[in-house]
Design brief:
Number of strands: 12
Structural class: alpha/beta
CATH topology of the largest domain: Rossmann fold
Number of helices: 10
Number of domains: 3
Oligomer: single chain
Helix content: 25-40%
CATH architecture of the largest domain: 3-Layer(aba) Sandwich
Radius of gyration: 24 Å
Bound molecules: zinc ion
Shape: globular
CATH class of the largest domain: Alpha Beta
Length: 345
């Protein structure tokens, strides 16, 4: 008797025909999820409660994305517990939630495989819906149609054999879904803008007045801003004066260096205390790149804020309550950006 792949005929994450090897941590090979690893005893228990897995399609997509990037997705009870506790987040991966985010993630995926606009990339729309975190092929196909609509065409979506189309409903999962997808020139331009938002970056750029003699601001940075970013939410915190360079400031253009670092960041924390023009400028630049800018200001300067930034979304802080500031900033980062994975170098 072949004991290796017969106990569980379908993938626990997507119901496709799949093979498991009966090891303690079993390898599952699935046409949708690719390859992932699962605790075999846990798998046995999950099988008895089928259909009751929280955000199952997201787990399937995580497995798919990680294995495509040659990383290992190990699905254990502990991983599942964490996943559920974090409301469907997974460390180091941005999980697209809205239709727009799912389409964006698909465009990024195709562009990463393309050498140039209109480079034809083969996909299988019956099997590849997990690359963009779709629930099923139906959701995925509708995005493909939407993105290839001539009015806003971002991709070309060509069936290898147009006849295949009429088989979609009649024959799910039987290899009829092969097609070419290529990114159009407007699509390419669009994705380039998306790429600037640096979804994989773990850097946070801090824009603020830098003056070593200003103890109030230095304390705010060292006791609240930096620990909120680096310790509480786990992003690498960068203020431009902390970036060591081979040459003194007088020999390099500090503005160029600032913009290079902002280009690499995932988001920005901007402190508007003392009303510095460079902070407005850097924050505006970051916004233009599509980065989230988290704004703060000392209570004494709130009235000086320029009109267009003076609204309730500033985190207003006081010198005597820096622990409160740190906590509020950490909460804001976590709710707007999510937690990072930076743990020191
Ligand atoms: Zn699967």
């Amino acid at each position: 008797m072949n004991d290796s792949s017969t106990h569980f005929p379908t993938c626990i994450l997507c119901d496709s025909l799949a093979t498991y090897d009966a090891q303690q941590i079993s390898q599952c090979v699935c046409p949708i999820c690719n390859t992932y690893f699962i605790d075999y005893m846990y798998l046995a228990r999950l099988y008895s409660t089928r259909g009751d897995i929280y955000n199952r399609h997201v787990l399937s997509s995580i497995a798919r994305r990680l294995s495509e990037n040659e990383m290992k997705f190990e699905f254990t009870e502990e991983v599942y517990k964490q996943f559920k506790q974090n409301k469907g987040k997974y460390p180091g991966l941005d999980i697209p939630k809205t239709p727009d985010e799912r389409m964006d993630s698909f465009l990024l995926y195709i562009k990463a495989k393309s050498r140039y606009p209109y480079d034809p990339i083969t996909i299988d729309y019956l099997l590849d819906y997990a690359v963009s975190f779709c629930v099923d092929t139906n959701e995925f196909q509708n995005y493909l149609f939407y993105l290839s609509d001539p009015r806003i065409e971002r991709i070309k979506f060509n069936y290898i054999n147009p006849q295949n189309h009429k088989h979609i409903i009649a024959h799910k999962v039987n290899g009829f879904g092969k097609c070419f997808v290529s990114i159009t020139v407007p699509g390419w331009q669009y994705v380039q803008k998306l790429e600037k938002t640096n979804i994989d970056s773990q850097h946070c750029f801090v824009a603020m007045r830098i003056d070593p003699t200003n103890t109030e601001l230095e304390n705010a940075y060292n006791l609240a801003i930096k620990p909120a970013i680096q310790e509480d939410t786990q992003y690498f915190c960068l203020r431009i004066d902390e970036k060591t360079t081979a040459f003194p400031d007088s020999e390099t253009n500090i503005d160029d260096r600032i913009f290079v670092e902002i280009n690499k960041a995932k988001f920005m924390v901007a402190d508007f205390t003392d009303d510095r023009p460079n902070v407005y400028y850097e924050a505006g630049y970051a916004k233009g790149l599509g980065l989230t800018v988290i704004k703060c200001c000392n209570a004494k300067d709130v009235d000086k804020l320029h009109f267009d930034t003076r609204n309730k979304d500033h985190i207003v802080w006081e010198s005597g309550k820096l622990d409160v500031f740190r906590q509020r900033l950490a909460y804001r980062i976590e709710s707007e950006i999510g937690k990072g994975t930076y743990t020191g170098e």
